[in-house]
Design a protein that fits this description.
Largest sheet: 3 strands, antiparallel
Radius of gyration: 16 Å
Number of strands: 3
Number of domains: 1
Distance between the termini: 41 Å
Bound molecules: zinc ion
Structural class: alpha+beta
Number of helices: 2
């Protein structure tokens, strides 16, 4: 990912997973910093319906939440 200000490649600082039972709107916070200028970037990611289904298929081989609804 490029720096918004100077187009340098940002350095990945780490991911923070929010607790599943928290009320937070987002699931993952990624920290990035620019090695060239004083820029710090936080990327908030939210698992939508598509991401959740993909994750379940990876974990369980199928979308389990559809079973739970029935
Ligand atoms: Zn920069």
């Amino acid at each position: 990912m490029k720096c918004w200000h100077c187009q340098s490649d940002l350095i990945w600082g780490g991911d923070h997973d929010f607790e599943e039972d928290s009320d937070g709107e987002y699931d993952i916070l990624t920290n990035l910093s620019c090695p060239t200028c004083n820029t710090y970037v936080e990327v908030y990611h939210k698992f939508g319906e598509i991401d959740r289904r993909k994750k379940e298929e990876q974990l369980y081989g199928k979308v389990v939440s559809d079973d739970l609804k029935e």
